[in-house]
């Protein structure tokens, strides 16, 4: 068993934004052409802690770098108040020959990188060659830092961001981090300022229920709806919606799930990102509607990225090998 600790994963990802985006793009293409297996994620919830959850995401990705495994990721929004990270995670990669676990990775960084890379890929794809010069960032946690990092990688012309958080101290701390990536960072006094300032918006909050109608956004703005539960149902229904997978995203009371419950169908979904990448679906026309990308977060993306990180770590001699992690002799199974 190869164990990759937090610093091993960080070292493998450092400075590799474009490589990571390529891994994510190839995985989206594989998913769109039937070369993945992505069961529905399982949510473990707690009766007396409705906002907290731990999620299992199993997946298989086929192709020349085939891989399988499962990510086990917790989301405890209350941690933020205590000054600790909201999310923590581990990921196990399994052998495709005998099913035995081969690697155990610290995975919160994988999740953040996968999310940032997927958002940047969607922005680059949906911008269709138009320059992305600025972005409004609503929510100032780790995820929007990564979204910004990867946006700058695909759009070096992006030099200005406007940030908003309900907590002014968090907004100020985030702005200091953002200035390491872009020269101009503004802190908005109200969410509408951040929504109105740019043609590109990223929503990465801990909201449990829709709270934004996006009326302040510019016509035709591109909205990266990373946290999935921010946008009012009426706004979703009137927008051009792009998803990673309709079956996955229309669950767990996301804004799109609520829209489906209200309408009885999914006709408000225009395309899957993989279908746009392969050309199976044309890019949306510029008709003034908001274009909203809502990614549920496919486990296949985490597995593919973990495979990439493990390969880099092994090439660099990183991580800790534990040869006796698994029993050497067969044991009787009870399940």
In short:
The protein is an alpha/beta fold and 335 residues long. The chain has helices spanning 6-13, 17-32, 79-82, 108-127, 142-154, 168-178, 191-197, 233-238, 246-249, 255-263, 273-278, 299-315, and strands at 2-4, 36-37, 42-46, 49-61, 67-75, 87-94, 101-106, 134-138, 160-164, 184-187, 200-203, 222-225, 240-243, 269-272, 291-294, 320-321.
Topology:
Blueprint: E1 2-4, H1 6-13, H2 17-32, E2 36-37, E3 42-46, E4 49-61, E5 67-75, H3 79-82, E6 87-94, E7 101-106, H4 108-127, E8 134-138, H5 142-154, E9 160-164, H6 168-178, E10 184-187, H7 191-197, E11 200-203, E12 222-225, H8 233-238, E13 240-243, H9 246-249, H10 255-263, E14 269-272, H11 273-278, E15 291-294, H12 299-315, E16 320-321
Parallel strand pairs: 1-7, 8-9, 8-11, 9-10, 11-12, 12-15, 13-14, 13-15
Antiparallel strand pairs: 1-16, 2-4, 3-4, 4-5, 5-6, 6-7
Helix pairs in contact: 1-12, 2-4, 2-12, 4-5
Organism: Nakamurella multipartita (strain ATCC 700099 / DSM 44233 / CIP 104796 / JCM 9543 / NBRC 105858 / Y-104)
Protein name: Ornithine cyclodeaminase/mu-crystallin
InterPro entries: NAD(P)-bd_dom_sf (IPR036291), ODC_Mu_crystall (IPR003462), ODC_N (IPR023401), SbnB (IPR023866)
General description of the model:
This protein is an alpha/beta fold. Helix content is 36%, strand content 24%. The chain contains twelve helices and 16 strands. Strands 1, 2, 3, 4, 5, 6, 7 and 16 form an eight-stranded mixed beta sheet that branches. An eight-stranded parallel beta sheet has the order 10-9-8-11-12-15-13-14, sandwiched between helices. The chain is globular. It starts with a strand and ends in a 14-residue tail after the last strand. The model has no long low-confidence stretch (mean pLDDT 95).
